[in-house]
Every structure is written in C-alpha cells, then in structure tokens.
Write a structure and sequence with these properties.
about 425 residues, alpha/beta, seven-stranded parallel beta sheet, 15 helices
Length: about 425
C-alpha cells in the first residue's frame, strides 16, 4: 500500500498554499492514503475543519503537538536542543556560512535547527520506526519541515518542492538560507517549480544536480475566457500579497503617467496595503483604483468569470513561478510582468510583454498603453497565446498527474533499492 505524508505550512487552513487544493486530488488518486500535516498551523484558523478529497486524513493532532512543543522555543530552549549531538553537528557545519552573512543569520540557523529537531521528534512519535517501506514523505517547502522528515524518518522516501523564498538566498535579508545543501543531500529528490530554479540549484550545488528535477505547478481549466472591455476603458488586474517586493508603488507611478482611461483592480491584502491605498489616492481622475482585499481562491476565479480583464500586471522584483499569472493565462488574459524568477517561462511578446526588472515607470506606462490600445484582432492573438502557453506548461490536468506518477515511480525505485541492500 503506497502511503503519502504531505507536510505543509498551513494548508488546508488559510492563509497561503491555496494552490495545493488543485494538486491534492491527483495525489489522493495516485496513493492509497494521504496524511496532511500543517506544520505551521495557527490554532485561531483551525476551525472549521476543511473537507479533503477521499483517501486523505487531516492530522491536526500532529500539528497541535508541534504547536505545544513549539510554545517553549525560548532562546535557552533552542540552545538546549543544540546539545543533541546530531543537532550540534548540523549547527556547527553551517555556522561559518551563517556568520559570513551576519549575526542575524546565526540566530536564524539556531531557530531553524531547533525547529527541525522539534518537528522531527513529533513526527517520529506519530510514525514510530521502522516506518514501512511504502511511505513517501513530501514536504511542500524546502525548509525545516523537509530536514525534520529526513532526520526523523530516514527509512521513508523523501522529496520536497522548491518555490522561491525557500530557494533563492539573495531574496533574503540577510542573504542566507540555513542548511540548504544539507537538506537537499538528505532528500531522494527535490522538485523545483521553475526551470530557472532548477538551473539555479544546479549551478549552486553541482554535486546535487542529479537530485534536482523540474516539476511545475498547474492550475485547472476554467469554464471560459475572461471578457475584454469594449467601452474604451482599459481594465487591468493585479493579484498579490501586498508587500514591498511586489512593487505596487511602482505600478502606481506608471499609472500616473498613463493618458488613457484605466480601471485597476488589486486582489490581496498585506502589511503594505494601507500605504498603497494612500498612494493610489494620488492617481489622476481618469485612472480608478479598486482594492478588493483578500479573496479566497474560488472568489478569485469567480472574479475572472464576472468582470472584464484586459491585462494582468505584475511588477514584482522576486518570484518563483507565480500561480496568479498561470490563472490569468488560463482565462486568456495577456500578461505584463517583470522578468524575474521563472516568469520568462510563462510570458513573452506572444502573450503580452516581459519587462526588465529595472524598468522605469515611463517604460511600464508605455507598455501598459501599447497593450491596452491593441485592436480586437491583436487582443485575440495575445489571448490565444496565453491559453496555449498555459496548456503547454501549467495545465493542472497535465502537470499534477505527471508529478504524482513520478512520485510513485520514485517510491517503487527506492523501495526496491532498500530491499536489495538488505538482501
């Protein structure tokens, strides 16, 4: 019986990781049983219990045990956990690299190792060794959860995904991700969600290149296409957590330079929302801004079905492979986006415009104006190209069955290898 242990941060609870909702049914069909463990569960969001696909169990008991153990993670208790021989070896091995990045990185390393040990102990209590050979552990993030599984459940087949913030050190301040090489070393396979991420890891860790594979996320086929405006107003949409790296202030600067009537809608909340809303008050009268706040995934999909969307815009300085852009493409919406992370794999001049990450407000305004002024025939071509790119690269009905099949094949391969070693 093939079993899957899926380690998430909060899924199936909000916020974040909503895109796992599309992936989990494919995993449930491939494996005989799936345990879902939200390792970073916020108890305030733990009700009501979400409904998972048949064959899946939500292990809130494990999540709550992690929370209880995490409650005493004071500085002294973190340091106490490092007295464990295994923990101390991990800490000491990465400490020189952490110190090179600064004192804050050393503290980050301490927290990371302590959390990995904590989660590992809880997992080992929930899944006593020896774990059956037909179990695969899948960490949705390349983080402490992945290392914890590797430390606690070494007899299982171990995989993880690598997205963006858990992959690129230069996005961090200070630029440091604890024990990345060590964690990948202990995995059977790591799946980067973009080819950009895969190549980045190949260059950074050539000795581990054989473990790093490409497996993009995907979004389901929508019911139809988003309609386009016919009243002379260009309607643009952005969808992101509102923080500095999304550079909505840069988009507002560009919109201030546009001469044509525009309605800009932003979906999402975040720590910078108040500041961005205040900046939007400075837009000229022919540019209207609307902020919906945080919407659940189904509401985002409903937005495309109920509103005209002429262009999806992202001015972000850092991305992995944005699900928000995939969703817009699936609805046939042209894309204007900065060429960061895996975005160039999704966007080019056939389905929109790829901006230099250092693009000025004037450059962005010119691109907005050019794309919104296109006639019906060109708009149709851009729309068709967006749908074709979605179908070729990030259609959930293609990507997730391939990923699930790869997991099953890896599990069988690992199981057979371990049996031969024992024999």
């Amino acid at each position: 019986m093939a079993r899957l242990l899926l380690l998430t941060h909060r899924y199936p609870y909000p916020p974040g990781e909503e895109f796992l909702e599309a992936e989990l049914p494919y995993l449930a069909r491939a494996f005989d049983h799936v345990d879902v463990v939200p390792t970073g569960l916020d108890p305030a969001n733990a009700r009501p219990a979400p409904i998972l696909p048949p064959g899946c169990s939500l292990r809130t008991d494990i999540a709550l045990a992690i929370i209880a153990a995490d409650a005493d993670l004071t500085v002294s208790s973190r340091m106490g956990r490092l007295l464990n021989a295994q923990a101390f070896r991990l800490f000491a091995a990465d400490l020189p690299r952490a110190l090179t990045a600064g004192a804050d990185s050393a503290r980050k390393l301490t927290r990371y190792v302590a959390r990995a040990i904590l989660i590992g102990r809880v997992l080992r209590g929930a899944y006593p060794l020896p774990l059956s050979e037909d179990c695969l552990v899948y960490s949705y993030w390349l983080g402490a959860e992945a290392l914890a599984a590797a430390l606690a459940l070494p007899s299982a087949t171990l995989v993880a995904r690598a997205h963006g913030g858990d992959l690129y050190e230069d996005r961090r301040n200070p630029p440091y991700l604890p024990l990345q090489h060590e964690t990948i070393t202990r995995l059977d396979r790591l799946y980067a969600i973009s080819n950009h991420g895969r190549l980045h890891l190949h260059r950074r860790y050539p000795d581990l290149a054989h473990k790093v594979h490409l497996s993009r996320l995907g979004v389901p086929s929508p019911a139809g296409r988003a309609v386009q405006s016919t009243d002379g107003v260009g309607r643009i949409l952005s969808c992101a957590y509102v923080r500095s790296e999304k550079r909505l202030d840069l988009l507002i600067e560009a919109l201030r330079l546009c001469q044509d009537p525009i309605e800009w809608t932003h979906i999402g909340s975040g720590p910078d929302l108040d500041r961005i809303q205040q900046l939007a008050l400075q837009l000229p009268s022919h540019v209207r801004a609307c902020f919906t706040g945080q919407l659940c995934h189904s509401q985002v999909i409903d937005y495309y079905g109920g509103h005209a969307v002429d262009l999806f815009v992202s001015c972000s300085i850092a991305e992995g492979l944005p699900v928000t852009i995939m969703e817009a493409m699936s609805f046939g919406v042209p894309i204007l986006a900065t060429g960061v992370g895996g975005v160039p794999e999704l966007v080019d001049d056939t389905n929109g415009c790829l901006l230099d990450p250092a693009a000025s407000p004037d450059t962005i305004a010119a691109a907005l104006t050019r794309l919104l002024r296109q006639g019906p025939e060109t708009r149709g071509m851009l729309s068709d190209a967006s749908v074709a790119r979605w179908r070729d690269l990030v259609d959930a009905n293609t990507q997730f069955p391939l990923f699930a099949a790869d997991l099953i094949a890896l599990l069988r391969e690992s199981t057979e290898k371990r049996r031969l070693e024992v024999a």
